[in-house]
Amino acid sequence: MRVVAAFLRLAYKPRMATPERARKRMAEPKGSSEPSAALRKRHDVRTREIGGFAVHTVAPRGRRATRAAVYLHGGAYISEITPQHWALISRMADAGVRVDVPIYGLAPAHTYREAYPFVTEAYRQLLADHDPSEVTLAGDSAGGGLALGLAQTLGEAGLPQPRRLVLLSPWLDLTLSNPDLRAVDDPWLNIPGLVEAGKAWAGGDDPTQPRLSPLDGALAGVAPIDLYVGTREICHPDALRLQERAAAQGADLRLVGCEGAVHVYPLVPAPEGRAAARAIVESLSA
């Protein structure tokens, strides 16, 4: 993790260091969100559209999936899904899990107002094939925040909770206003740039509302949560705060903190990341 942190500090941290750099990055063309040829060769991959947005289903080839998941990728709501995301999704499919991957629209062209109906419908359609007791709702970073926000709104949509939520370094507060964040020497993430990306995702609406900052949403009645977070990232203080709020509301939250680990460390091909990825895949497929 020390080696990973040094690399991230040099290669990635400057890209979102200021609001101006964040706006420049948001204006850049988005990359492809298509599953790779290797993924299609290894698994049964199908794509459908909901309201003009794609949902990729990655399932084990040649056998019925006994478990299912919805996976919402991270990227500060401005970046497309990456090979690291697909690698974890592939491991889930190897373990017998059908994974539905909704490719929600990215800011600044799209906002949360389009994302929520889309991911809610994707979850609804998955339940047509799988009982809620077989389904996990998962996501990392921005996708982790969206996953928790979705879980908090399922009752409004008349939908049941999944078996479990698995959140990897979720972005829980769009404003990043927790004063404890300033004391974290995150080698990758910058608060000014992320706040700018959050404003674009909010589309002019109040960024503290639970659909944008699920840290402030109700946790009672939400499915049990497994939350993975590194101690060397700015998401860590809000993860601790969510743990406190869950305890106060009687919600079931298990926080897995990795000492010295960076943001979304289960996606990192380091010993700590591989161990966390194994645990996540086992929890989804069990």
Please tell me about this protein's structure.
This protein has 286 residues and is α/β, with parallel strands linked by helices. It has one domain: Alpha/Beta hydrolase fold, catalytic domain (Rossmann fold, 3-Layer(aba) Sandwich), CATH 3.40.50.1820. It is built from nine helices and eight strands. The protein has helices spanning 2-11, 19-27, 37-42, 83-94, 112-127, 142-153, 191-202, 235-249, 271-285, and strands spanning 44-50, 53-59, 67-72, 97-102, 135-140, 164-168, 225-230, 253-258. It has an eight-stranded mixed beta sheet, with helices on both faces. Strand 5, helix 6 and strand 6 (164-168) form a beta-alpha-beta unit. The radius of gyration is 17 Å and the shape is globular. It starts with a helix and ends with a helix. The model has no long low-confidence stretch (mean pLDDT 96).
Summarize this, please?
The protein is α/β, with parallel strands linked by helices and 286 residues long. The chain has nine helices and eight strands. It has a single domain (2-285), classed as 3-Layer(aba) Sandwich (Rossmann fold), CATH 3.40.50.
What attributes does this structure have?
alpha/beta; single chain; 17% strand; 37% helix; 286 residues
